[in-house]
Specification:
The complex is a heterodimer of chains A (341) and B (461). Chain A has helices at residues 2-16, 29-34, 61-71, 85-94, 114-133, 141-160, 167-180, 212-219, 249-258, 270-282, 297-300, 303-310, 327-340, and strands spanning 19-22, 38-41, 77-81, 102-105, 197-203, 222-228, 287-293, 314-319. Chain A is α/β, with parallel strands linked by helices and 341 residues long. In chain A, helix 3 (61-71) runs parallel beside helix 4 (85-94) and helix 5 (114-133) packs across helix 9 (249-258). Chain B is built from 18 helices and twelve strands. Chain B is globular, with a radius of gyration of 21 Å. In chain B, helix 11 (237-263) packs antiparallel against helix 12 (271-283) and helix 11 packs parallel to helix 13. Chain B starts with 6 loop residues before the first strand and ends with a helix. The chains are: A alpha/beta (341), B alpha/beta (461). The interface between A and B is large, with 46 and 47 residues.
Chain lengths: 341, 461
């Protein structure tokens, strides 16, 4: 009886828990959840992209959308990361008046030193204190272990089925997973078996507002067999390496994340290229679409290196504050796929 | 040979140089007429600039414009050359603490397209290497590395990363992909300490969590090891401490110069020469001892002029605080032609102007200095310093100069302008200065003149 009441209380508490939106896949949602709060990866919702305003010169539409989205969240919190100038400075603009519901997580860029790993750990701990200030409870290592196991299993499942779905379905499933931790897999798609030109889409945030891009690629005869954006496989960590009987789950979490970040901001960026090489080779990729936001220097600068490294044609698609593909983008995709056929 | 302070064209400097020579001007080894930089180096922009007419300014210009030549000479002599990128002020202090090691900033190549009026084609070449005009003009560095026509290829290339401009980080990564091995070290985004969190005071009246200072100190230890290996001898605390003391000599001289020039009723030295003088702080223009000599002459010149109440820009000019360096040096001339004068600056390296603490272990002191970089902290911190200096130097207007394509410029200007308006009530605008701004002069003129008129109109009768 007592345990049933506890469970019910716990469910009610979780339903009313504060939402914590996070803007980088390298923030552990397991950690947020362990504090009794609701982690929400921002890629799943179109809300930040509604009522878009014209951008100031050079401003990244993603950073701008996140700042405006955060401003509108009276009862929720938003976590930004330090990994690009746009997010750092967007955070500054956001917190001019009040910094109580926003958090800037410092992800180390130089990743090959023990100091960097320790710095990441300290940031996860600092995030924990922020979550408690928001009303989260003191994390239990037992619960953290359980959340890690569940998230890990679901990530593994998602990775297993990557090739069974259309690129849009797969992106939606990953975004849904980042959104609320749930694994909702639709029926396998016939389009996943199509014989389109195998392509990789590489880049930063690819949110719900832009998923029609994936449909457009497939309509034009392409087939995205590798999604290396933030709603793709690149952001699905491999299983946590742990001997649960001996390791503190917190240590495993920190190590599992920090040692598996695969992103463009890291210096050197060899991890990104190792990951891409492994996956692109396995999937016989014939062309790369580089998806980046206006003002995103980090991704844009990779275009030539991608060409040189993989010897493949690279199409740059630049996103702005608008949702959906522009007619120009559609024309560019059509021509790109046609050239590769 | 003394002459009343005024600004000269390059043609006028030819005559002035002859006069000075006839009257016994003594010059350092890199001295000579300014004209030769146009003829020999194709620094065409010099033909469109206006210069201070003092021998001190001549020495400053010659020092600046011979840097690549002096670096090649140092290499030929057997010195080790360190290319240090982005941190603007910290790593050179370490490098110059070792004998026969010189550090320079390849970043400085961002002014080459301006100086050569794009005849160098560095920007075009960078585009061909995948770094187009959507990036900051610092992309010129990439092509300068590849064509080896400017600075010598460094023996060691050290780049700070972390909370740095994305343009720079991306370009430096591209450089590494092209085969130039980079030693990366990180400065995290500086944050305010939480309540109860152990913290440290930084130069510039800043504060950071102890944990961040420790992190940077560990990063600098890695840099120290790399420099020691290059030099073939350990970089001891004792040598570092001496290096810090000498760097502080430079910083004290600059501080005195800025204080004199920016607080004087009229401007004893022009904005352009002051910009260049400030830049000497970041890496001593590849010769630390000579930097001290150059600055001493400038300080003496400014002192004399103030004492004699002789100014290059009169007291009626609008007192302007300038934020960010200009991609085209000519903009500094134009500002004065349109009725302004510089009375305060933040050229993105204010941490290289502040004294490095001498009462701390050297690496700790350098870590704190590196973390005081205005570009790694919140723009609110930067705005606070700007406001403080505006008050100190009684600035009447603020100009935030945008660097084309620079990632930080997209957001910072609005925050700084808003803070300035709120705290000081002085007018502030943003302008964008490309590497050669001639085509923009009508727009630039309209905006700056409107600013100066507005600022003048606010003066008490």
């Amino acid at each position: 009886m007592v345990s049933q009441l506890t469970r019910e209380y716990s469910q009610i508490h979780e339903q009313n828990a504060t939402q914590v939106f996070y803007t980088s896949p390298w923030i552990p949602p397991e950690w947020i959840k362990t504090h009794g709060l609701k982690p929400r990866g921002v890629w799943f919702t179109k809300d930040p992209w509604l009522n878009s305003l014209p951008l100031a010169s050079g401003v990244c539409a993603f950073a701008e959308a996140m700042v405006r989205f955060a401003e509108a969240q009276a009862d929720s919190a938003v976590i930004f990361t330090s990994t690009c100038d746009q997010q750092r400075r967007g955070f500054d603009a956001l917190t001019a008046a009040d910094r109580s519901r926003a958090f800037l997580f410092n992800i180390p860029v130089v990743w090959q030193t023990p100091a960097a790993s320790q710095a990441y750990r300290c940031e996860v701990e600092r995030l924990g204190r922020f979550l408690q200030d928001l009303g989260g409870h003191v994390p239990s290592l037992k619960r953290l272990g359980k959340e890690m196991t569940r998230y890990g299993q679901d990530r593994a499942r998602l990775l297993d089925v990557a090739q069974s779905y259309s690129s849009r379905q797969f992106a939606e499933s990953i975004a849904r997973f980042h959104w609320d931790g749930s694994l909702q897999l639709p029926s396998p798609s016939a389009s996943a078996l199509m014989n389109g030109v195998p392509l990789a889409i590489v880049g930063g945030p690819l949110s719900a507002a832009h998923w029609d891009l994936l449909d457009a690629i497939e309509t034009m005869g392409g087939h995205v067999v590798l999604n290396a954006t933030e709603t793709g496989e690149r952001t699905l960590l491999p299983a946590f390496a742990s001997d649960h009987s001996a390791d503190d789950p917190f240590n495993v979490l920190v190590r599992g994340y920090f040692e598996n970040i695969v992103d463009v901001f890291q210096r050197p960026n060899t991890r990104l290229y190792s990951w891409l090489k492994k996956h692109m080779t396995a999937r016989n990729i014939r062309g790369i679409i580089l998806w980046h936001f206006t003002g995103c220097d980090l991704w844009r600068a990779e275009a030539q290196t991608l060409r040189e490294t993989f010897g493949l044609p690279v199409l740059l698609l630049e996103a702005d504050e608008k949702q959906f593909c522009s007619p120009r983008d559609v024309g560019r995709i059509e021509a790109f796929v046609e050239m590769l056929k | 040979m003394n002459a009343a302070p005024r600004k000269l064209s390059l043609d006028e400097w030819d005559d002035r140089y002859d006069e000075l020579r006839c009257s016994g001007l003594s010059e350092p080894s890199y001295g000579g007429p300014l004209r030769r930089h146009v003829v020999q180096e194709r620094d065409l922009r010099l033909q469109h600039l206006r210069y201070d007419n003092s021998p001190a300014a001549l020495r400053l210009w010659n020092f600046l414009l011979t840097e690549n030549e002096r670096l090649h000479q140092a290499r030929a002599k057997g010195d080790k050359i360190v290319g240090t990128m982005k941190d603007l002020g910290t790593i050179p202090v370490m490098a110059y603490s070792l004998p026969h090691v010189r550090a320079f900033y390849p970043d400085g190549a961002w002014w080459t397209p301006c100086l050569m009026e794009c005849s160098d084609r560095l920007l075009h070449q960078a585009e061909a290497m995948g770094i187009d005009a959507s990036f900051c003009p610092v992309r010129a560095m990439l092509s300068a590395f590849q064509n080896e026509e400017h600075f010598p290829c460094p023996d060691l290339l050290i780049c700070s990363t972390g909370a740095v401009c994305d343009d720079f980080s991306a370009i430096a990564q591209r450089l590494e992909n092209l085969g130039h091995q980079v030693f990366w070290w990180e400065i995290p985004r500086r944050r305010h300490p939480a309540p109860q969190e152990s913290s440290c005071k930084l130069p510039g009246n800043l504060v950071a969590p102890r944990i961040q200072v420790d992190f940077v100190r560990e990063e600098l230890q890695r840099v120290r090891d790399a420099l020691s290996k290059l030099a073939g001898q350990p970089l001891s605390d004792c040598a570092l401490a001496e290096g810090i003391r000498t760097a502080n000599q430079v910083r004290r001289l600059l501080s005195a110069l800025r204080q004199m020039v920016y607080s004087s009723p009229g401007a004893p030295l022009p904005a352009l020469e002051m910009l260049i003088a400030e830049m000497l702080a970041i890496h001593f223009c590849s010769d630390r001892e000579e930097t001290i000599a150059v600055l001493r002459e400038l300080v003496a010149e400014a002192e004399t002029r103030i004492r004699q109440e002789q100014f290059v820009i009169g007291a009626d000019a609008v007192r302007v605080f300038w934020v960010n360096p200009v991609a085209d040096l000519r903009a500094m001339n134009l500002l004065e032609e349109w009725g302004g004068r510089i009375c305060g600056s933040d050229y993105m390296f204010t941490h290289a102007l502040d004294l490095i603490p001498e009462d701390l272990p050297p690496l700790e002191a350098l870590a704190r200095t590196a973390l005081a970089d205005p570009m790694v902290g919140s723009v609110h911190d930067r705005a606070a310093r700007i406001i403080h200096e505006c008050r100190t130097f009684r600035a009447e207007a603020v100009v935030v100069s945008r660097i084309p394509g620079a990632s930080h410029c997209a957001w910072e200007g609005a925050v700084i302008r808003e803070a300035v308006r709120k705290e000081l009530g002085v007018p502030a605008i943003e302008v964008e200065i490309p590497p050669v701004c001639d085509a923009m002069i009508p727009t630039l003129g309209s905006r700056l003149q409107a600013l100066f008129e507005t600022a003048s109109a606010r003066r008490q009768p």
